[in-house]
Hints:
Blueprint lengths: L2 H20 L3 H9 L3 H33 L1 H21 L3 H14 L2 H11 L6 H26 L6 H20 L14 H4 L1 H8 L3 H17 L1 H14 L3 H52 L3 H11 L5 H10 L7 H31 L10 H18 L6
Amino acid sequence: MRAGTLFIxxxxxxxxxxxxxxxxxxxxxxxxxxxxxxxxxxxxxGALSTVFALMQFVCGPVVGNLSDRYGRRLVxxxxxxxxTLDYLVMAVAGSIWLLMVTRIVGGxxxxxxxxxxxxxxxxxxxxxxxxxxxxxxxxxxxxxxLGPLIGGLLGEYGTRAPFYAAAALSAxxxxxxxxxxxxxxxxxxxxxxxxxxxxxxxxFRQIGAHPELRRLLWVxxxxxxxxxxxxxxxxxxxxxxxxxxxxxxxxxxxLYGIAAAAVQIWLIRWLIARTGERGTALWGIxxxxxxxxMLALVKSGPLALVLTPIxxxxxxxxxxxxxxxxxxxxADAQGELQGVIASVNALAAILxxxxxxxxxxxxxxxxxxxxxxxxxxxxxxxxxxLATLVIRRTPRAS
Length: 398
């Protein structure tokens, strides 16, 4: 693996570790600074996630267009610098409102994943795109193996310890990138920055001009709207349904990460060779929907741990969809495309936590007519069914 590609994968691994480190302790942290019940903490957790995603939605196309103009290296390094500062502020935050401010700043600068995808598109042939996007997904999965496990262990030393660890990882990654990352945006594909294309509406108009791109972006939106059920309610769902501790929540996320990494390194290449990108995306979405139904209905904690890695089979859908989209745009617009994808993902992340945590709270609050913590997963399965219908109407690429 080339040094630049290795850095991109490591960047995504550490990015995911930073997220995974703090997930197991978020319910306890919110209750610590705000008080109230677990259901109330879930609502505040949804609000924090939504604010973060709103900033990504607004700024994603801007960052993507900036990387098309000034290069991937500069954007990645600046993002990592501010990510380090953001974790340090979260480590000392004493109120829910300061946590809200950190999510605003973090959302503005969280360009690492989209810019990493643009870099990968720069160095890939059209045939390699989906499989190489799978390496990014695998890196994210590996990060989720290490992050939640370490986060659960560090949570024993207090709710702030994981934030200091996340800041340290981001700082080390910044140094690594400064030393090894080479620029991939050359004068041949460098494109002038235009505000008319950098704002979300302009970027959507530019990228979505082709009917096939619009349809694929709708599939990507519905898929991510459903999948944000996991970061939105998994920690709360694990406590309410199975009585899991932060350590068990971390273990479940680690099992998912191990399986997702294996799926996106090996299984996706096998599937694409036999069914193509469209078929791979379709089967991934269907597998994810079936997994949500099973998780919604299961009552046994050990059985849920068994189902968690099985659910990761659906992880092939994201890189397959990215490959389908990347094939359909020019080389000088890959950053713009990844910015739009980041905005679509962020829009899903804005809506999903609000919807999923509200559904969770409605079915778990004291006095709820029906106690059903799995309700958000049923809703996710319905959204994945809609995504399946849309992608089936998308023609195969010529």
